[in-house]
Structure formats: C-alpha cells, structure tokens
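Honest question from a wet-lab person: if I give you the sequences of every part of a complex, can you actually get the arrangement of the whole thing, not just the pieces? Trying it with mine:
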Amino acid sequence: MKPVISEHETTHPLSLARYIAGFVGCVVLTLAAYLLVTRSSWSAWAIVATLSVLAVVQFIVQMVLFLHVTEERGSHWKLATMWLMLGVVLILVGGSVWIMNNMNYRMTPEQMDNYLRSQDSL
Amino acid sequence: MSEASTTLDIHQIEARATEKTTFGFWVYLMTDCVLFAGLFATYVVLRGNTFGGPSGAELFKLPYVLIETMALLTSSFTCGMAMLAAQRRDRTQVLAWLAVTFLLGLTFLGMELSEFRNMVLEGNSWRRSGFLSGYFTLVGTHGLHITFGLIWMAVTSVFTIKKGLTESMRKRLTLLSLFWHFLDVIWIFIFTIVYLFGAKGI
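Yes, you can. This is the full assembly:
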C-alpha cells in the first residue's frame, strides 16, 4: 500500500538542496567572520559593522532554510510572533545598552571601580 | 468511496493538529528568545566590568571556539537530514542521522564544559567579575538547553526504535528538529557577540 502523505507534507516537502545550501552558506559566513577577526587589521568600527551584517545574514539563512519560516501554511502567524519577538529583543537589548552606556558616561567607570574597591563588603 | 473520503478527512485533521502543535512550540521558541535577549543584554552591559580580572580577549581561544561552532552547525544540518529521512519513512536513516546529530551535540557540549572547567581551575569562575558572571550565565544557559536537547533526542530515538515512524513520532521529531535548529540560531549570536567581539576587545 502506498503510504498516505498528509496534505501538510505534499504542499511543503523538505528538500535536500535547501539544507545543503543552508549548511554551505552558514559555513562560509562563519569562516568569513572568523577570518575577519583573526586576520584583518580593520578598524574596530568596521569589524563591528561587518560582523553584525554577517550574523544577521546567517540568522536569515538559518531561519529560512533550516527552520522553514516562510514556506509552511500558517506561516503568517509564525512570522507575526517572530516580528513581535524581534521587537521585544531589540527594545530589551538596545534599551539596556543605551541606558547603561549613558550611566557609564555620567558615572565614569574608574570612579565606580575605585568606590567599589574601597568597600570591604566586596 | 465514502471510506476513502473519510480517511482523507482524518489525515487532514491530523495535519491541522500537527500544524497547531508546531505553532505552539514555535511560540515557546520565540519566548525563549526573549529569555536569551535578557541574558545577552546583561552580558553586553557587564562585558567591560572585569574588576581587575581577565577580559574576553585574554580568555577566549578562537580556534577552539570555531571547532565548537562547526560541530554545532554540522549537527544542525544532520538533524535536517534526519527530518528528510523521516519524510521518506526511512527509520534506519532517521536513527543513523539522529545518532550523528547526538554525537556532534555531545562533542559541542563536552568542549564547552572543558572550556568552563579550565576557566574555573584558573580561578576565572563566575565569581571573579561581572563580565564572567554574565558570560557563564549566557553561555551556560545555552549549554543547558543543549543538554536538554540531547536528553530529548535520546528519548525520541528510543521511542522511534520501539514504535516506528508513526504520525505522532514524526510530529515529535519535527518539534525536536525545530528546537535543535533554534539552538544553533542562538549560537550565531553567542559566537559573534561574546567570542568574536570579545576577542577583539569590543
């Protein structure tokens, strides 16, 4: 008897080509980021920008090719929750970094360190 | 005729149920991302607070971390191969690919624990500085997820041997693969923000 394939799978079959493309892409992106840090003499700012782009590209590659975010039926809600998550993550991480950098600026780290060192409780 | 249409309906209903479960699990993964966001924020804020202790640039060995990263990335790929085998209803291949995935995951976890052990033995534990507290909490939480993923994978493999690739088993395999791919997605950012930025002292 021919195995019954559910509607879910017939409309969205997983494919070997996508997994291989995803894997090769991620290996290349990871090695590029690694070599950039170990071999290049770029300025800190250029390295931060390039590494961030490489990480975001790899995130998209894995989301699409490994986690199949865009293919499945009902992916509308999958995408909606993902955007909500990205929004919360951005506010949480971006907001924390912003606030704490501001505090560091107003209370210089050296002063804070000296103050903490003077307290025996630490 | 009427029998055929009934079986089709049942399969449609099963497919819908699987989709609902998968979506529910997806929502859990998204909330887990928010947990990691909190830990990332803590780490980034504390990364410069070494309190006289070593910084990331002094502690991290990038070639070692690259091997770890490749092991986890390859395990994510082999997990996908297991899912392809499940789609072909090939139980032997599912188990073979899951075994490869498990071993690669175990390699990753072993390397991470050995890295942690060396740091603690050198006196650089989570108690040393704010930077190291943030580091151990963030990377350790990811490692804990990997540990649970490995236990889940072992249990699922045993059930696959016992029950075969039933509809319910394939659903569980789908959720497991989502979880495993998700852990690799989190690692992209740990690799970039903690290790690569850290090694450059950024």
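Two things worth pointing out. Chain A has five helices and no strands. Chain A touches chain B through 53 residues (CB under 8 Å).
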